[in-house]
Amino acid sequence: MIVTRLDEAQLLGQIEELADLLVETVEDGASVGFLAPLGRTAATAWWKDRAAGVGAGRLAVWVAREGGRTIGTVSLDFPDKPNSRHRAELVKLMVHRDARGQGLGRRLLTTAEQAAKGAGITLLHLDTETDSHAENLYDSAGWTRVGAIPDYAASPAGVMRPTTIYYKRL
Q: Which residue of 7, 76, 98, 161 has the fewest CB atoms within a 10 Å radius of its CB?
């Protein structure tokens, strides 16, 4: 398995596989900002919209590939305000259903944390659906749970769910 940071052209070159991963993740019920059913056209358009941010350095995207296919991704979203350049938001950590339970989520998380630290970031933050499997990963990786916001986002099924906020000092 190879984990690689994508530049803008590479992201656009892998857009179909990234769209497939996003669609599959939503189908499996993960709360990553979309309602089900998520069509492939909408997922492709969402990833295309990220390309300019990657090109401008406001977004860093890593993919995990194995056997010629994309099986995971994670991103860091860097703020553009002068008073917040020390932090970044961890976003869209997704692992293909066939690759779950093998440590890939941890590897992607560690990759993003190390890259953030190397870029001078001293604080990461994220939000995730309360009581999701993702909470186990963040808890075990040393992230600090701040609390939960009730009815923060709808699940892919459209049910309002609480979201837990985490941070990690690097």
A: 98
Mean pLDDT of 22-35: 96
Tokens 């994508």, located at residue: 6
What is the CATH architecture of 2-169? 3-Layer(aba) Sandwich (3.40)
Dmax over CA atoms of the chain, in Å, equals: 42
19 to 38, 152, 166: CA distances (angstroms)? 10, 25, 26
Task: Compute the distance between CA of residue 133 and CA of residue 140 in angstroms, rounded to an integer.
Answer: 11
Rounded to the nearest 10 degrees, the angle between the axes of helix 15-27 and helix 40-56 is 120
The pLDDT tens digits for 44-97 are 999 999 999 999 999 999 999 999 999 999 999 999 999 999 999 999 999 999
Q: What are phi and psi of 31, to 5 degrees?
A: -90, 90
pTM over 0.85: yes
Query: What is the sign of the dihedral through the CA atoms of 125, 120, 170 and 11?
Result: positive
Round to whole Å and give the CA distance between 25 and 108. Answer: 16
Q: What is the dihedral of CA 31, 139, 163, 111, to 10 degrees?
A: -50
* Nearest-angstrom CA–CA distance, 80 and 24: 31
How far apart CA 108 and CA 41 sit, in angstroms, is 26
Which residue carries 């008073």 as its tokens?
Answer: 83
